Every structure is written in structure tokens, then in C-alpha cells.
Amino acid sequence: MPITSVRALRRSGILGMNRRNIDYIARYNERSLYPLVDDKLRTKKLAEKHLLPTPRLQAVLDTQHALKGLSERVSGLSGFAVKPAKGAGGKGILVITDRERERFIKASGASLSLPDLARHCSNILAGLYSLSGVPDVALIEDLIEPEPYFNKLSIEGVPDIRVIIFRGVPVMAMLRLATHASDGKANLHQGAIGVGLDLTTGAGVHAVQFSRRIHTQPDTGAALDHILIPDWQQLLTLAARCHELTGLGYLGADLVVDRNRGPLMLELNARPGLAIQVANGCGLLPRLRRVEAIEDIPAEPESRVALAMELFGSNS
User: CB under 8 Å to 9, separation ≥6 — which residues?
Assistant: First the structure.
């Protein structure tokens, strides 16, 4: 990368990986707390204790022997999600949206047999998708039914909202929209769309796919310039509450809006990626420094959300 480009990135306040790791993750996140977010089962149990809404857990498969009862575990479920408890980056997540007799239907229309489903769960247990390849457990959760507002924005998958929280204060957010290219996954590296969000209103301010600026959803043609997230203040407050949940000073919260249950917390990340800056078209560093300079951070999540809206909205 040319030196001028490096200087331009610094001027725009882009947070690089080394600075993120040293100045924020290492400084504000106690390593002893990482298991609270690296293990989705522990995160879910902690959320239940703190009354934070999450997708309902239907089953936990923790041994290869448990796969013999898989048919009974999913017999009453027309749709569900299978996740590795210790997975990262969306790897190993399988979403079933419907069933046709003995076949399990994915959002793309592709179908799986029960042996296919069991094989996927077996791979999860073997640690194929887990951090460092350690043995894992498979979680079966309720299928998220997205708020209808997102029907033409996210294809073959559930949209989610990533919020970066620093010292309990939301500092940046983006909406991640699944596309056909991303195979229904809300993962920017796989072709999902990232839409930067104004922290005051929840309005879309900037959208990218494969790091290029776009203005319409490539699969549906829906405009991305007039997005306004439903239940925005409630979502931000849920994100802010995740600080108390974990004790982590720097973390990412992934949230969804379910049509029946409203805002839900999906998972948390002690090492959230930096692509959120690309989606917003601006850097994290100035925002982090502003929060770092505040001596007394409000104790109540609602007050921290009000502070974020005051500091980082489009009119701030």
C-alpha cells in the first residue's frame, strides 16, 4: 500500500488491527472473560440469567451418541438453526427454513436428508468449525422470523445488526444483509451487504458489498439509501446491556429483529472485526477516543445510549 494511502487512512481515523488488538482489546478486555463470549452456550445461559432476550434453545448435542436421537429432537420443528457453540465468522451455521416429508429445506431451496443433518452436527462436535479446532457442541435454536420490513433487503438469510460497544457506550453500528452471493449468510467477507447506520436514528448512511459502494440490493433492486431500522432505540439499549452481561470493555454485539419477539441478542464477540468502518465509510478511532476521554460513563444502559446518540449521530 502506498505511503500516501496509509496517511489518508490515518487522517480518516481508521482503526487498524494492531492498534485495535493492543490499545483496545488487550487493554479493556480481561482474557479470563473471553470464554463468556467464545462459547455461545455460556453466552446464552448468561443472557437468560440477565433477562436478555435471545433465540430459544431447543436442544444441545454434546456427544456423538446424542446424534442417535436427532430425529426426535427436531421432530416438532418446521424450521431451526444449528450452530457450533465455539464457532466464529458464521462458520458451521446451518439454517433450515422448512421441511418436506423427510427433507430439510434451506433458504436457498437446497434440501438435506436426516443423515446429512446428522453429518453436519457430527462435524460440529468434532471441532471442524470451532476456534482452534477444539471439540464442540451443537446448538439447535428457534428459527428467526425477520421483521417483514427486511423482506426485500435480505435474501435467503436473516439480516443482523452489529454494534461495537466501548466502555458500555455504542460507538458504531451496521446492518448486515444476506445475498445470494453470500449463500444466505450475513457475513461481509462472503458477499453480504454492510450498511452503516446513524446511531441517532438507525437510518442507513452508506452501503457496501465486497468493499465497494452500492445503492441497491443486487438480488432485488431494493434501494439501500432509505433504510430505517425498526425498534432502533430498543436495539441500541439491548446492545449496551451486553457490557454488564460480560464485563468486557470492547466488544461486538450481533442483534436481530424477530417479527414476533422483537429485538434479540444473537451472539457476542470479544474481537469484533473492522469491516464495520468500511460499511460506515468512516473510522472508529475518533469515536473511541471521545469515549475514552469521558471520566464518568453513565451506569444505566439507557443513559449510555442517549450519550451515544448525542456524540455520534449524523447531526453531531
Answer: 16, 283
The answer to whether 146 and 256 are in contact (CB under 8 A) is yes
Whether pLDDT at 107 is above 70: yes
| In the predicted structure, residue 6 carries a pLDDT above the cut 60 | no
Q: What are phi and psi of 222, to 5 degrees?
A: -65, 140
Distance CA 91, CA 127 (A): 11
- Write down the pTM of the prediction: 0.92
Mean pLDDT of the chain: 92
User: Between 3.30.470.20, 3.40.50.1110, 3.30.720.120, 1.10.760.10, what CATH number should domain 3-51+147-312 receive?
Assistant: 3.30.470.20
pLDDT in tens, 217-229: 999 999 998 999 9
Residue 271: all three cell numbers together: 474481537
The SS3 assignment for 40 reads helix
57-142 has which fold? Answer: Dna Ligase; domain 1 (3.30.1490)
pLDDT (tens digit, 9 = 90+) per residue, 227-237? 999 999 999 99
Distance CA 177, CA 191 (A): 9
* CA–CA separation, 204 and 148 (whole Å): 17
DSSP string computed for 196-264:
EE-TTT-BEEEEEETTEE-SB-TTT--BSTT-B-TTHHHHHHHHHHHHHHH--SEEEEEEEEETTTEEE
Taking a C-beta distance cutoff of 8 angstroms, is the pair 246, 36 a contact? Answer: yes
Measuring CA to CA, how many Å separate 203 from each of 25, 206, 279, 299? 28, 9, 13, 27
For 1, other C-beta atoms within 10 Å of its C-beta total 7
Give the integer Cα–Cα distance in Å for 170 and 306.
Answer: 10
